[in-house]
Here is the input.
Amino acid sequence: MGASKEFFENQVFGLLGALEGAARRLTRNDADAEDLVAETVLRAWHARGALECEAAFRSWMFRILNNTFISGLRRADARPKTEAIDGGDGDGEETGFSLFEQMHQPFLLWFGNPEQEFLDKLLREDLERALAGLPEHYRVVVILSDVEEFSYTEIAHTLQVPVGTVRSRLARARAALQKILWQQAGERGLKRAAAPCPEHDGKARGINHVGKGGIG
Amino acid sequence: MTEKEMNCEQALRQIFAYVDRELGEEERAAMQAHLHTCKSCFSRMEFERLLKSKVRALRDDKATPSVGERVKALLKDF
Here is the structure.
């Protein structure tokens, strides 16, 4: 089927904020994000005959956005050599890091909850910075799953990878994201505050030292 | 429906899929049964769920005017 111009316009404008947000997080640059959105819309218009059904428009647009981003990277060869564009779910990458495990202290039930306090202090800027620090193949799955709330099947369709790959890549991406957040907390001297320390009372062991500026 | 008993190791392996609502009915029921009895896994699940909701809150619903204008101009030419 091919989308009518009216349908295409309505759908594009309905998605524009989400597309721009994803583009900005992928490119890490406002001007490049604007170019990416414009190129995505242009490509989508020319490829509209390939749209299988109108209900799939959203995931189809994100697929074009991601493909356009990747082909732009390939053209520019701007990516760091250590980053993989298409996957890179290698064994050497962090898979088991958990912020919760760094902070959780089961014996502090009456005194405080460090992991909850950590989340309470987490600002939008902290998360944006951590997300920007992820390799792009991780960044894109977090954007699609956690920001845009795509299902695993939709992500698989968007990225053209098996569902099992989505599941494992997302787990690695979240571990990597949490590791960056933890490193950001460390830059502010917060790791020590959050680490288990039986000699001190619960509140002292929490992450109460996080200031108004967030963790980053 | 029979609920399979789940241990902590199995629960932690499924925790993201649970938070993402990607488990099948039986796996979800087994996970819920485990979470009812295991405070540690429940706390971990709650943490992951809240962190996910923080990331979800980054979502942008409105495009900037410059992107809106640029796309509008593009569409005019189609």
